[in-house]
Amino acid sequence: MRILCAFLFLTIFLSGCVSAKEVCKGVLGVSTKVLEDERKDALKKEIGYDLITCHNRIRSILRKDGAYIYADDLRKDMLALYVSEEDTTPVGVFLTEQSKTVTLVEVSSPSTYGKEKIAKLLFDTLTKELKNVTQTKEVNQ
Fold first, then answer.
1. The model's pTM
2. Cα–Cα distance between 116 and 109 in angstroms, integer?
3. What are phi and psi of 29, to 5 degrees?
């Protein structure tokens, strides 16, 4: 127990200006900081859904594909996930409302593989859904 306390104290002390909360998340493997740092190199696409619908659709697509969502921060409009429960490659999905009907989706990861896999899954699925919705509207008019 003493060793554990010493380890935690050293980790917090040596982390410098990083918050204790972020250090604990890092030790547990659920930090989103690296995903936020990698956002500058994110794969991006504008999707024709409002922010809430886009968020809900993305959660559904990721769950259906077997991804493990470990953080869902509505204040930051981001989801943090592992590619699967077995593959703990971290990937971040950031959402930015462009207008009432368009949301910018950004997929970031320190892993090119993880970023490209999740971006392809989301962008292809969401684009296909929107295409089907548009075709349905045209048929009904």
1. 0.75
2. 9
3. 85, 20
CATH class of 32-140: alpha beta
Q: What confidence score (pLDDT) does residue 38 get?
A: 87
Report yes or no: 109 and 123 within 8 Å, Cβ to Cβ. Answer: no
The Cα–Cα gap between 121 and 58 comes to 10
Q: What is the mean pLDDT of each run of 10 residues along the chain (141 residues)?
A: 63 53 42 89 96 96 96 90 93 96 96 97 96 57 49
Q: With beta carbons less than 8 A apart as the criterion, state whether 50 and 33 touch.
A: no
Selection from 139, 57, 66, 125 nearest residue 95 by Cα: 57
User: What is the 8-class DSSP label of residue 100?
Assistant: T
Residue boundaries of the structural domains of the chain? 1-30, 32-140
